Amino acid sequence: MKKEQKNLTDYLKRFWNFIWHDDSWGSWVVFIIVIFILIRFVFFPGLALVTGSSLPLAIVESCSMYHEDDFDDWWDTHNGWYEDNGISKEDFKNFPLKNGFDKGDVFLILGTSKEKLELGDTIIFQSSSGKPIIHRVVDLNPLATKGDNNKKQFDLNQNEGINPGGIDETDISEGQIIGRATVVRIPLIGWAKLIFYEPFRESGRGFCKQQ
Fold first, then answer.
1. To the nearest whole number, what is the mean pLDDT of the chain?
2. Is 138:146 a contact under the CB 8 Å cutoff?
3. SS (H, E, C) 26-80
4. Which residues contact 207 (CB under 8 A, 6 or more apart)?
5. What is the pTM (predicted TM-score) of this model?
6. Residue ranges of the domains in the chain?
7. In sequence order, what are the residues at sequence separation of 6 or more whose Cβ sits closer than 8 angstroms to the Cβ of residue 157?
């Protein structure tokens, strides 16, 4: 038994030295594989357990929550829809993430339920197209969202040109909710992933502009 333990210890030491002290291409390849395994099968499952969300880190993939101006200027341009739906400037000022966010930002997501959500929270939910959407809650009964940079909500009555993903955010079910976006955000780092498939997107390519 002691001999087997010694052999295992020696092997682990050699493996450790190979990864950290060897300058060969082989050691770099093994290092990358080990890091990938740790992130994929240890870090993310652990983070999902702690946050209570199946998607604990989310990359913003569209410009639907983008604000180009400061809050007052943004509100002057976008207030119509919100005031028509009972949300005042003072209400919006008190919303979390009131200044929106940019494509490529990465958020920490916490698990939540309908009962715990408040008006103005930003949630991520599964759309009927299977694509996660991160938008702001604008109604609680029924649960509904809207992108700050969108002129209106997505619903199933819109044609494919306006709503190519067939998204309905006017009545979100409990089962669609993935989590709530926190204020913990890493700006733009998600572009490291987005850049690889951004050229192949049918719409919404490139950097954001305010609508």
1. 89
2. yes
3. HHHHHHHHHHHHHHHHHHHHHHHHHHCCCCCEEECCCCCCCCCCCHHHHHHHHHH
4. 103
5. 0.84
6. 2-49, 53-200
7. none
